[in-house]
Each structure stands twice: as structure tokens, then as C-alpha cells.
Amino acid sequence: MKHPSPDPIDDRTIVLDSGKTRMSDPGRRGKGGISGSPSSDRSRGFFFLFIRKRRLVDTRIEELKDRKTPQNVLFSGQEQKLDFLENEYELKTELARGGQGTLFLGIDKKLRRQVAIKSLRPEQCEDLRQRSLFLNEARVTAQLDHPAIVPVYTLNSDRKNGLHLAMKRINGVTLKAYLDQVSMHYRLDGVDSFDEAKALQNRLEIFLKICDALEYAHSRNVMHCDLKPANIMIGEYHEAYIMDWGIARPIQAGETRRTLVGTPQYLAPEAIVGDPCDQRADIFAMGAILFEMVMLKNAFTGNTPEEVMTRIRDGLQETPEHRFGVPVSRDLKAILRKAMAADPEKRYSKISELSSDLRRYLAGYEVSVRPDGPLMRIARWSYSHRKTSLILLLLALLTGLGALAHSFYQSYRFSEAMRERDLALSAAYSICTRAAYQLDEQFLKLEHMTSLLAADVQYLLRNDLFLAPPKELKYRSVDEMRRIHLPGMIYSSFHRGIIDPTILVYNLTNDTDRTTLTRRLDPLSRFLPRLLQVLLVSPRNAQVRPDRVEAMKKEAFSSGTPAIRILFAFHDGLYAAFPASGAFPLQYDPRTRLWYQVVLRQEKKNFPVWTAPYIDSIPEIGLVISCSVPLRMPDGRGNGVCAVDISLDELIEELHSSGNAGPHVLEKAIMDDDGRIIVSTTRDFADIARSNYRSPDDEVVFKQLENRAVLDDMKKRKFGVVTIQEPDGNETVYTFCHIRSVNWFYIEKLDMRNLLAFFRR
């Protein structure tokens, strides 16, 4: 079979004078949408209903949101003197080379971790625009703290005045290469060798991660301006990253740029004709990317950049059909049509609207851009109530044509009530999934911080002989902390006692090798600023700026943060903790604690592990969970454990502030795959977390999900909605979504009667 040839136009970013590329044609601006899309045939959908999932619509999701907007990114700033690259990093293999610089594999000299170094050569630095774009990328990326945006470590120079940006190394491929691989498999193995429905779902889940990152950037008043598959990385665990923020700019409605910047195939029509651009230009580019991910071909083609941009201006997309002939849902085509509308006013106004429609599509619900007609509503209700529909049909056959007509009329009226019900369920489900994704991001952030901390500590401990001793001791024993009171000590209501946030506290067991005490504690004491930073940035979207450190410290140690403390424990019984506290028991052996034992089952793996709730070593703190990472020697042997304790009180507060809110919410909870409630917003659970346990040796009794049928459905589907008919005639609704990072579930238990009343209001 002969398939369409790839687009001859490459995806390089262009910068052109708008006076040379302006292609304004007011008479043709309104021809947006996907050309050749078939008209909706509602009756046809009735016959395909039994092979499709039940779908709902969520038109009021925005009304049920209550999200705080983070502080805007600062684009301005003076260029400062930079440290030399060779003082901090070793350049290794060249990974890639392009017009915007060269990418190298680098090694951090202090921590011995691999990094990616993007370099702007001295001759490129002479171009003031290239230098400005490079610095802009460094400045913007460093301020965007999101799991799907690559973190920046340092900005350096060299003795030849070149610029170098050190960032996290991503093991993976670009989205462009990923899609090329998918197309190659189709060409070599044929369409029948793929489960395209599952493959498409995987691609759309990647796209949703990109949407979440872009939504975060837009909330920080940042437009990317050059979104394309080549600027998106797919990691080895299918994580997604948005790269290359060099031409990013603030979102300012009504602003017109003098130059045309971006990649021709992904430029919005308003940018091409020189009209003002806002965040909807990014949404158009995301629509073009989504088109590629669904259809496996470019949305716009041409032999020259000018021809491509002319087709974009005129709304002449490629036919919305799969490159290899696989059927594509009408709902998905409608989403694409909306995302790539030539008129920005007819486009999605926010990236969250696009992602919400996609999530509803994946869940089998009605999408906002293609609402059901009367026949489809009846059909949808009939499918979900098959027994009732069959009874109505038999009655109609028995009572004649008149009764049949009456039954259909009653069914229609009933379907309207069901539509209202489905709208409310859809709103609740959409908010549930969004809350689950936010929790997942938070857990991933804590995992990432713990893993980086463990890796750095391993390096310090392995190379401690080459480090000079500290000028003063930065650690004290638990016994010393109990006997003395120094100026650095403060009372922390969050930690339930006196702490010292300037030092480490340690303790020994009888079998501790005392000769190695200082060799391990001295390197750790050099890490105190890093340990403090981990605690301060543990809240979602938290960032440490020099002018806010003291204020954040005061708030952290009085009001609390998700992370309570950081622990280091070794196989001979030595442990150290930050912040220092004298409340630890003198006979405390970390090797008996759950946060230590949980990593022993990992063999030689270095993955972070989450514990179930357990009683803190300071019982007044109550229940905690920990993220633990093993500390290993170069030969792979275990040496100890690094762990971050998370307060269940703070996690309960996180649950209260996320997801649905109102009288219809009976409970919000996090549950493991055995049906044990890890965290819940119910009063009895909160009371248990705070006061029902008196000793670290007490066994934690978990509350079980009362309905096993609901649990089985959760395990099978991973996300969705389950309704349970109660004896009083009311329904209890369970909305749930899988949290992949910890393999738990986020659940919201809702009262249907109150949900409908809330939705009507």
C-alpha cells in the first residue's frame, strides 16, 4: 500500500521580517476549521452506540474551579557576570547541533551527575539576538517549576565568552522522532499489527501532560511561541517535557510583534497576517500537534514556508483522516476543528478547555464541542438503562402505536432529566481527574527531590576524604539537644517542640561504628542549605527567592509544609535528621522503622518507595508517610536510606483544597489498590491521624473501602464514575482516578441528590 509522503518542509524555527511575510487577506479569514470534515449525522450515532463508551459533557467545569494563579514570570533583568563552565562541569560527548546552539553531555564535577549542557558558541554570542534568545530561555525556564518543564541548574560562561546552560538530562526522544517511529511501524508491520485504540490513548495521555505544562506556563503569564513536536521530549517512562523557551514572551492581549517568529507549520493565522496574538496562538500550535499525534501526518503541508503559511491563513488543513486509514472518532475531529479554528474567537480560549474535552473523550463522555441531539440522548439513556428500555419496548408493542409514541415521549422527557444528571456527573468527574493529576504532580515532585538528594549524598559520602573539614560543627546528638538551649533553637508548633533549623541532629545505636561518625556527618553538614531548600519548596508551585527565604522559613516552621523532615540512616544504626530536634527517643533505632525497611525489598534498584501511614517517632506529630530512596556504594551494596517524611495533616489539607467542594461532597480520599484508605477528609480519619496513637510501636488500623464492587471497578478501569443505589432511593457517586506515581487512587464520594441541587445553582 502506498502511503502519503512526508511533508517536504522541515520544522525549523524561523524569524522573518513581518513586512516581508505579511499575507493579510481579510476576505478569507473566516474559513477556519478542518476542510472536508463530514457533517454530523446524529441518527447514525445511534447504531454505533453499543460499541462506544458512555459519554457525558461538562459545560460548567470552569464554574466549579477555584484555583489560585501563581506569580508571573519575570522577563526583565540585567545580564550579570557568570562563573566559568570549566569550574563546575566537564564537557563530554556532543549530543546534537543546531542553529540555536550545541548540546553536550556534561558531568557535574562536585556531584558527578550527568547533565545536558546547551552551549552558544562565541561566534553565535556576537549575534545580539541569538544571545538574547539564549538568556531569555535560561531566565524563563528557571522560573517555571513544573514536572513537564526541564529544570535548569546553572548558567555559565567560558574564557572565550561563550554561554552555557546546564539542565537536567532527559533520556528519551523528541515527540517528532516518537511519531516517526510509530509511522515506521505502521509501514513495516501493517495496520492490523496494532491496537490503534490503545496506541492512540497512550499518545493522547502524553499530549495531556504537555497541556498541563502549558496551562501552568500560561498561568505564569508565559507564551511559548514555538510549540512543535521537535521541541517536546518523551522520556523513557513516557514522561513529557516542553523544551526551548528561547522566544517565549509574556501574554499581552492586543500586542503585535514586528517580527514573525516560530515554525511555519505551527504558526497561528493571526501571527501570519500580523494581527495581535495571545495564548490562543499557543493553542493553535497545540491543535496542529494534536492533529499529527492523531492522524500521523502534518496538518498543513506545502513545498515552501510561504505556501505552508498561505494554507494556514486560508484554513486549508489536510483532510482529517488517519494516514494509514484507521477510523477517527467524530468527537476527536470536532476537538481538532475547534483547536485549529482560523478565527481566534472560535478557538478554545484556554488550554484547560482543550485538555478537559480530551479527558472527557478518553473517558467516553460527551465533549463540549459536539453535544448530543435528542435522538442521541434517548439512545444514550437507553444503552445505560437497557433493562428499563427493553421493558418500555415490550409495553409499547403490547399497547399499540399510540402507547409506543407516548412511551417515546416519556422517554424523551426522562432523557432530559438524565442529561442534567449526566452533566452534573461529568462536572464532578472532570474536577476529580484534575485534582488527581495535581496530586500526582505533587508526589512526583517529592520523589524527584528525594532522588536528587539521595544521589548527591551518595557522592558526598563516597568522596568525603577529599573534602576539607567544616569550620564549625553543624550537628549535635539527641542527648545534647535535650541538655542545652542555644540561640538557634526555636519553638515549632508544626514539629510539636523545640527545633534548630541550622544544624543536624544524630543518634547512635550500640553497634554503630563510631570511628566513621565524623566522616559521614561532616559531608552531610555541608548540605544544610540544600536540605532547607527541600523543605521550603515541598509545597506545590513553591519557589525559593533570596528575598523570601526568611519569610518562607518562618512560615514553614510555624504553619508547616508537606515535608516535615529529612532523614539519613545507615546500616550500623547511625541516623541524622533535619531540622534538629531533641524530641527523638534516645533508644531510637531507624532500622526498625517502616521508612527504612521498605527499601530493603528493592534489591539493587534505586527507585523511590512510598510507605503506608505509620506513627511518627515523635508521637505528638501523629501519622506520616515517607518517600524513601536507598543509599548505595559504587558496587551496588546498600549503605543506608535517605527519606523525606510527609505530614498526613498537610496531605489532608491538600485534599480539602483540591477537587470538588460543596455539600454534595461526602468524602475525598487517597486509597491503595487493596482498598485501604491512606488519607481521608472525614473527621474520624483526621482525628485518628492526630490523636488516636500514642506510641511509634502502635499498629495503624486502616479503614477499608466499604463497597468491594467499587474497588474491583477501580482496579479494572483505573478512572471513571460508579453510582451505587442506596436503600432510601438516593444514589452515592464515586468518582476516581489513578495516581500513577504512587499506584494509589484519588476518590471523591458524592451525594447525587445534593450534587444535582448544587449543579442547578
Please explain how this structure is put together.
The chain is α+β, with helices and mostly antiparallel strands and 761 residues long. The chain folds into four domains: 14-69 and 182-362, Transferase(Phosphotransferase) domain 1 (Transferase(Phosphotransferase), domain 1), CATH 1.10.510; 85-168, Phosphorylase Kinase, domain 1; 443-652, PAS domain (Beta-Lactamase, 2-Layer Sandwich), CATH 3.30.450; 654-760, 2-Layer Sandwich (Beta-Lactamase). Helix content is 37%, strand content 19%. It has 23 helices and 28 strands. The strands form seven sheets. Strands 13, 16, 17, 18, 20, 21, 22 and 23 form an eight-stranded mixed β-sheet that branches. Strands 2-3-4-6-5 form a five-stranded antiparallel β-sheet. α8 (279-295) packs antiparallel against α10 and α10 packs antiparallel against α11. The radius of gyration is 29 Å and the shape is globular. The two termini are 56 Å apart.
- Sketch the major β-sheet: 8 strands, mixed
Gyration radius, to the nearest Å?
Answer: 29 Å
CATH architecture of the largest domain: Orthogonal Bundle
Low-confidence stretches: 1-8, 18-69
What distance lies between the first and last C-alpha atoms, to the nearest angstrom?
56 Å
Q: Please, what is the CATH homologous superfamily of the largest domain? A: Transferase(Phosphotransferase) domain 1
Mean pLDDT: 78
Total DSSP E strands: 28
Q: Which structural class is indicated by helix and strand composition? A: alpha+beta
Q: In one word, what is the shape?
A: globular
Total helices: the number is 23
State the CATH topology of the largest domain.
Transferase(Phosphotransferase), domain 1
Helix coverage percent? 25-40%
Strand content: 15-25%
Described by its quaternary structure, the protein is single chain
CATH C-level label of the largest domain: Mainly Alpha
**Into how many domains do the coordinates divide?**
4
